[in-house]
Each structure stands twice: as C-alpha cells, then as structure tokens.
C-alpha cells in the first residue's frame, strides 16, 4: 500500500494517481484537512481519520507531496499529568512519522521544506558554481543593474496585497539605490544567461529541460513571466555528467530525493540557483515528453 | 566554423512535393519547400560554412535567406565549433494512463446508467462527446454535470438540437453550474436567441446546419491541430480510433458510432468487456504511414484520419481497411485540395455509405 500525503485538488498528485490506477497499485491519499488518532489493535499500530484508517505495517512506500500528517493532541486538566502526556503523545507522533519515513519514500514531511540560504552553502561545498550572494539591510553594496533580489521564502506569492488577488514575487534586477534601510533582504549577483535549465530530479535521475527565453525581453530575468504569444522553448537537455554528480551529492546532503532544480547556463559555466521540492514540474516535463508523473508512479 | 542545431521539438514531415514544419511547442505548423528540407538535412552533418561551399554564388543568397528564416522562427540556433550535443532528440514514444481516453455517445437523452458511469471511471476516460438529436432542458445538462461530479472525467462536449428555451439566461446558468462542459454546439438553429460573446467557460456555437453522425470524418486543414500529445499519438497509433470508444443510438458499443462493427450492446455488455474483444483494438496501431496515399502526405502527423468512411480501395494482410479517408479532398501528389464529394473516383464508396443526403460543408 502506497501512502500519499498531499493537498486537495493538487494537479501533480492527481496525475500520478491516474498512473497508479493504471498500474493497479493500491494507495491511500491523505489531505490537509485530516487529523489522525493513533490506535492499536492486536499489538499493531494503526492511525485513523474521518477519511482514512490504516496499519503502519501495511504501508510499503510513502510520497510526501504537500501538507502533512496531523495528529489529534489530547489535553489533561491536571497540570503534571498534562506535561507528561504531552511528551508521551509527542513521542508517539514522532514514532509514526519516523516509521513512515524509514520506508521507501519520495521526500519526507520532516525535511521537505528547504532553506534557500542553507542550500546555497551546501551547493558551494559540493563544488557547484553559485552566483555570489549576501544578505543586507540597505543598497550600499549593491552594484546597480548587476544584482538581483528574490524571496527567501518557499512560497513566492502574496495574497490580497494592494487590491491584487494574488501577486507573484519575481526575480528582479536592482536599478536604483534605496535611501532608507529595510528588512534584511537576499541579494545575488545577476548572471548573464545563455538559457535556464530546470531539472526534475527523482532518486538520482535527472530529467532536464533547457528553457530558452533569452530572445525575449520579458522573460530575460525570470522565465516565469510567460510570454503567451511566443512561449519559451522548453527542450530536452542533458546536464554535463560532472554537474549531475555534484548535484546528486547536494541532494544526498540535503536528504531530498525529489525536486526541481534550477540552473543558469552562462557560456561554459552552470550556475546552481535553487531546489524546489513542492513546485509544479509536469508542464515542463510534458513539453519534453519525459513522463515525470509516470516515473513517480513507477518508483512508488 | 558555425553549426546549425534544430530544436528537438521541431518536427519535419516530408511529403511528395513539400514539407510540413510542426512546432510542437508553439502548436503551429507551416508548409515549406523540399529545398529547405535538403538544407536542413545538410546542416545536420555539415558546418554552415561547408554547406555554403556546396552552393554557387546565386544559391548562396537563397541559402542565407533560409538560414535567417530558421533562426528568426526560432526553429533552431547556431553554435560555434560544433553542434551542442547536450540537446538530445525528442523521444517520440506515446504514453497515456487511460485505458480509453475518449468516449463518443450518440443518445436520445442525458441519462446514463450507473454501470456506464462506473465503466467510464474504471477505464480512466478523460473526454466525453455527446451527440443528441433531441431538445435538452437546463435540468438535463445539470443532471449530466452532477452525474460526473466525483469522477476522473475532465471534459464534456455536447452537440444537441437547438430549441427556443436556449436563451441568454439558460446559457448563463450553465456557465455558473458546470465545470466539465467545455464545448456546446446547438445545431439546426435558424435564429440564435442572442449574440455569442466570449465570456463563458465553454465554447458556444449555434449553427443552422443539421448535424448527423455521418457528418463526422471530414479531413480538412481547419480540423488539423498541432499539439505535442496529438502528434506523438499519431506517430505511434491511429489518430482516429486509438483509445476511443463509441456507443451508437441503439446502445451498440463500437470503435466509433459511425462504424458498422459492434462489440456488444450497452444493456448487456460493459465497456470493459467490449474492449476485450479481439477486434476492438485492431485499428489502434495503424498509423498514417500504413495507409495508402496518406503515407506520402506531408499532413500525416497532424491529420485527424477517419476509419469510418474510407475510399474502400485497399485492405492489408490482416484485413484492415488501409484506404485513404473518403472525406479528404487533398492529393499529396499534386498538392491540390479539391471538393472530395465531387471526385468521380469516390462515387462508388459514397454510394456504399448511402451518403447522398450528406451535408458537405460542416
């Protein structure tokens, strides 16, 4: 039995599930609104929510996509009892998560959210080229037109800001100094790119796509600013073996076995930008006929 | 030395007199000369300078123009010293998780049995097309939407008879309540109740033509679609029948409602049982390269094909009809389009389908 931890109406999950059905593989899909209680029967542990109920030892593989397993937490009136029971429950929850994560899996609930700053440091350690970056609270050290800013957050959208429904914080080139100081911000050297490369990574394998947008002013600094009239060309690409080796090493260091990895190719160099574990990768994959959703279903 | 690299998502289909360049990323195809094809071929194994050396002064200008064209259209790019070997070719295998992807149902109403709905789910069917010769009420449409509320079905297209209740309000209500309907065609409509604007979730058409099941199967430029998945399917399978199933007005399960062969009746046979019949999938792997005349045509990879109505001139060793679609007026040997129904060579086949009353211009 495969355990899928995801959110409602999540497209990637839906597409993978279609393949699981076609392959006759059994699965359980857990969504963000479920809360589980841990129980036992005949010395076996099972967990139960309104929608699902399964023994831990039934699960053969786990795909952590989004959201997470949540548990009911009981409180007790007696203060001393409560302190003890909180810890008692903590270790039970911890045991369930650890047991599930020790099975064959694609990503883990406990470390799927990556810290962009930490990832960049680790990437440098593996010998990957990383554009120079720093944190600052003013623009004193910024070289205008040669520096970009981008969010440190995993979620790059902002809801309901200044009358917009949803805004995306794109990578942006700094073209003027700010007089005031501001909240600590991530600055990075702007790399003149030949093109971008997005690799879907699954357990050591790379499915890479060259995203060729340089002919288009609109998509020069951020390919997500789509040009609908003349879309970027997304074609199959093979990263050099050496870059794949270092990146594989990075993913092992981060203990992540699935994600989208962004690079910039600039002449002979491949600059590592970031790893994204929760992004949508099926669009890029299907334009190259990679069948990433099928590869995930096969792995599980 | 400079080298020209063709992008892997540019597919060139060679015909007798011309080539079709299909841009599978930008969903667009265009006709070009065989001359351009020769140049592209030469550029695959020679540097740009070496190719130029093959041509005399006058032709060099033409060559330069072609090269500019290829780069401006972003069909490829130029590199120094060598081709960029990190760009591998597109793999043209086709995979789809559905057992059946499309179902075409000819029906008198929109009531489907629970068994049929379950079969649609079991087979992973994504697209449903309904052809209805009767007048459908708003309630009928909403019931249909509700029937597939919790299913894996992604889209529904409906052809139904126009009637005067179909007004602005009717369509607005549909737009509010329906998620899966993406195309609505009301036929036999002499006077549409309102002007169609582009504001609905679905595509809406009122046509004065009286569409029939045998209106289907026309092969024409306006039906061709350049789309990565469709093209990959056409390269590997039959673009008309692969993963398709049909139910005719009498409940007979077929490859397509317009075909004769039945694999059982929906009242006694499930779709799952019908597709197990040894002949059900016999056309699935007949690609255009196995069909007479079409195999030489530059449109073969974007063509819709039709196995229901053919010229009935050729059969292969397995008994498959490998004749050109009857309703195709294109001749790849002369590169001319003509009105198919007037072609004297097709009259015998037309009569055998008793299509004299056909409307020719849908």
TrEMBL record, chain A:
Give the domain of life.
Answer: Bacteria
Query: What's one GO BP annotation on this UniProt entry?
Result: SOS response
Q: Name one GO molecular function term.
A: ribosomal S6-glutamic acid ligase activity
InterPro entries per the UniProt record, alphabetical? GRASP_w_spasm
Q: Which GO terms describe its cellular component?
A: cytoplasm
Q: NCBIfam families under this entry? A: GRASP_w_spasm (TIGR04192)
Its protein name is: ATP-GRASP peptide maturase, grasp-with-spasm system
TrEMBL record, chain B:
Q: Which residues form a coiled coil?
A: none
Report the NCBIfam families cross-referenced here.
Answer: rSAM_more_4Fe4S, SPASM_w_grasp
Q: Identify this protein by name.
A: SPASM domain peptide maturase, grasp-with-spasm system
């Amino acid at each position: 039995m495969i355990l899928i931890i995801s959110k409602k109406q999540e497209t990637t999950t839906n597409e993978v599930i279609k393949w699981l059905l076609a392959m006759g593989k059994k699965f359980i899909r857990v969504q963000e609104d479920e809360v589980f209680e841990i129980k036992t029967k005949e010395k076996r542990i099972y967990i139960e929510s309104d929608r699902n109920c399964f023994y831990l030892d039934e699960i053969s593989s786990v795909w952590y996509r989004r959201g997470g397993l949540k548990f009911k937490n009981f409180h007790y009136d007696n203060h001393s009892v409560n302190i003890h029971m909180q810890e008692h429950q903590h270790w039970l929850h911890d045991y369930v998560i650890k047991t599930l994560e020790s099975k064959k899996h694609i990503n883990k609930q406990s470390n799927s959210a990556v810290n962009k700053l930490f990832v960049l440091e680790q990437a440098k350690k593996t010998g990957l080229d990383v554009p120079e970056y720093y944190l600052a609270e003013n623009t004193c050290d910024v070289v205008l037109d040669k520096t970009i800013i981008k969010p440190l957050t995993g979620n790059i959208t902002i809801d309901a800001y200044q009358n917009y429904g949803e805004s995306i914080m794109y990578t942006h080139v700094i073209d003027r100094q700010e007089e005031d100081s501001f909240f600590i911000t991530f600055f990075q050297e702007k790399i003149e790119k030949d093109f971008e490369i997005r690799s879907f990574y699954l357990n050591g394998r790379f499915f890479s796509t060259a995203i060729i947008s340089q002919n288009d002013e609109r998509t020069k600094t951020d390919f997500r600013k789509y040009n609908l009239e003349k879309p970027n060309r997304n074609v199959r690409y093979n990263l050099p073996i050496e870059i794949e080796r270092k990146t594989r090493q990075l993913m092992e260091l981060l203990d992540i076995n699935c994600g989208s990895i962004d690079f910039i190719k600039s002449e002979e160099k491949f600059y590592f930008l970031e790893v994204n574990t929760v992004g949508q990768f099926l669009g890029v994959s299907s334009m190259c006929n990679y069948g990433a959703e099928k590869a995930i279903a096969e792995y599980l | 030395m400079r080298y020209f690299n063709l992008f892997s998502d540019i597919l060139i289909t060679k015909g007798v007199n011309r080539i079709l360049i299909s841009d599978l990323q930008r969903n667009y195809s265009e006709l070009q000369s065989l001359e351009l094809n020769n140049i592209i071929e030469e550029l695959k194994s020679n540097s740009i300078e070496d190719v130029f050396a093959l041509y005399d002064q006058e032709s060099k200008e033409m060559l330069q123009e072609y090269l500019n064209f290829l780069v401006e259209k972003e069909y490829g790019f130029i590199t120094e010293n060598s081709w960029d070997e990190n760009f591998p070719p597109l793999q043209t295998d086709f995979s789809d998780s559905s057992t059946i992807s499309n179902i075409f149902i000819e029906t008198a109403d929109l009531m489907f049995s629970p068994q049929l709905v379950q079969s649609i789910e079991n087979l992973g069917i994504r697209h449903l097309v309904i052809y209805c010769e009767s007048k459908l009420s708003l309630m009928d449409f909403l019931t249909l939407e509700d029937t597939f509320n919790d299913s894996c079905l992604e889209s529904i297209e409906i052809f139904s008879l126009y009637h005067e209740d179909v007004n602005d309000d009717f369509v607005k209500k549909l737009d509010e309540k329906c998620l899966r309907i993406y195309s609505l065609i009301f036929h036999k409509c002499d006077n549409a109740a309102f002007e169609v604007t582009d504001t609905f979730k679905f595509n809406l058409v009122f046509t004065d033509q009286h569409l029939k099941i045998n209106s289907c199967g026309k092969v024409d430029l306006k039906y061709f679609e350049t789309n990565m998945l469709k093209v990959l399917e056409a390269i590997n399978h039959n673009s008309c029948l692969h993963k398709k199933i049909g139910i005719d007005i009498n409940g007979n399960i077929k490859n397509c409602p317009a075909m004769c062969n039945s694999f059982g009746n929906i009242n006694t046979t499930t779709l799952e049982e019908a597709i197990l019949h040894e002949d059900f999938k016999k056309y699935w792997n007949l690609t255009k390269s196995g069909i007479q005349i079409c195999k030489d045509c530059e449109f073969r990879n974007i063509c819709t094909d039709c196995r229901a109505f053919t010229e009935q001139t050729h059969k292969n060793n397995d008994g498959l009809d490998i004749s050109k679609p009857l309703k195709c007026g294109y001749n790849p040997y002369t590169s001319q389009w003509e009105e198919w129904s007037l072609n004297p060579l097709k009259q015998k086949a037309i009569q055998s389908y008793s299509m004299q009353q056909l409307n020719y211009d849908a």
